[in-house]
Amino acid sequence: MSPEALILVLISACLHAGWNLIGKQQSPSQAFFVISTFFGVLLLSPWLWLNPVALPDWKHPFWLWLIFSGFFQAIYLTGLARAYKSGDLSVSYPLARALPVVLVPLCYSLSEQGSQISSGHFPAVILIVAGALLLPLNRLRDWHWRAYLQPSILFVLLAAVGTTGYSLVDAHGINILQKDAGMNPYQAGASYVLLQGMTCLLWLAPWAMFYQEERRQAFRLIQAPKWMIWAGLFIMLTYLMILASFALVDEASFVVAFRQISIVLGVIAGVVLLKEQLSRLRVVSVSLIFFGVVLISL
Prior knowledge:
- The chain crosses the membrane at residues 6-22, 31-50, 62-81, 117-135, 147-169, 189-207, 227-248, 254-274, 281-297.
- Keywords: Membrane, Transmembrane, Transmembrane helix.
- The model has no long low-confidence stretch (mean pLDDT 82).
- This protein has one domain.
- 76% of the residues lie in helices and 0% in strands.
- It is globular.
- By secondary structure, the chain is mainly α.
């Protein structure tokens, strides 16, 4: 991974932990992420006017990739909202970030492309899986299969599927903007994240507003939008930097892996700022996950 891509991913990790903390702290709901995404798109939209770029023709497959990306992004944000509503940030966030590290290269391996992650990375994968299995437990002797049927854990799995989906799709979308439209990584990243935010809203807003409770949340949140504006800005900048980094590497798996430094930041935020409990077993679990993703990134 190039130094430029590394710096982008590290800054993105900090911003990512930041907007997840805001979402958990303010209102873990689909309504929160709808409004935040809307403000993020609004803040970034001048890009297309100040820096006009030649987008692919409407008949180009790029637009189909973009629609899929928005769908997976909506799945991801919905999973996060529901997981944060019923579970701790220090548990849900590490799981949602770690599971795609295994799922993305698995999808690459099953595709015709194959994956650059080989059998030498199996110890890292084992660490991640072991940490993920231990994290929902307070004590090892409390282990029971029902511990994994908590609503928050099931919604974390939904968020992980969303992350895996948009990671794979976005890598294709960014490559198209670079190769077919001739954009540099930053032009491609800014253009794509703005378009992705729009398509995400097309999926997420009707889904969220279908529920009366989400409509009530949206009305309450819009009365004091400061935190949604910050979260929206962080969301856009997070994915702008990640999408730009996709254009600087050969495979999305390495970007998805290295950005998991945000796992530690998310756990610290949950414990220090939200006063969540952190047992010794959870410290071990987070450590296993963290070292696993570091091994893969190296």
